[in-house]
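Hey, can you fold this one?
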Amino acid sequence: GECETPVEYNRHIGSLRIKGTDFTDGRIAAGDKLECHYEINDAGILAISVAIPSISGVFPANQNFYTSQDGLLNPSESLERTRVKVDSTIGEISQLASRISDPLLIEASSMATKAAALLTGAPDSEQVLQSNERLVSARALLAELRKKHLREIQEYRLDREMNWFNVDVRPYASPQDCIDYDTLSETAKRSIGKNSREFESALSKMDTVSFDLAWIQDAFVIKLFNSWAAEPNQFNNRSKFDDLCSKGRLCIHAHHIDALREVVRALAKLMPKEADLPAAQRERANILKA
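Sure. Predicted structure:
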């Protein structure tokens, strides 16, 4: 899509999946460059491929790796997910308003408010569709704002991450953990305002350090489980989600926190990449999936 950051702002229509069994030579390592190419023909058919230079492969290669089923939802799921997306977008606009003053932000707020208004009461499928269209427009404006105010937004994201570590994690971190984290934070600070991946890489590593230390704390695991259990529409396979939540509540009641950790790991695997949870929670789900 047109929104480079975050990619979740683009409309989710499907997935291109490449498994280890789809190629015989080489290995795709974390951080390897992926070159995505797409084309829409006159009939509106989307053709997509990914080139991976590290293994000299191009996918699809005489096979259909693309599945559009991932982008399909039943009407009730579509309504609930749209509501969550709209609420999430309005919340992000509110947060940005505390840091940025820009007419684009006012326009994005107006568009998101109109999207929310279409979902009041019991909206029909046409109203949900119209709401999604306004949401896409609001998010496109936010993506433009992210480019225009790169420094301010990066400073905000770094402050949020450092506040979590300093308040909730540093008290039980080892001296070496603190040194490692502070080194990463200095790297992130130096890269603020630069259009490079250095900032994102440093911030991601900081979040991983914070998460690894928080993960061994029982209270954090319980809090993370409860926050995910309250967002059923952000997960695939509702039946399995409900089963895991029931199991998780039993674990909490019996204070079997190691078993609860396994439940949270299983929930992370049900969370699609485009889930409209706060960015920090999506990042933590990605850590658990690794």
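Strands lie at 15-16, 35-40, 46-52, 57-59, 66-67. Let me know if you want another pass with a different chain boundary.
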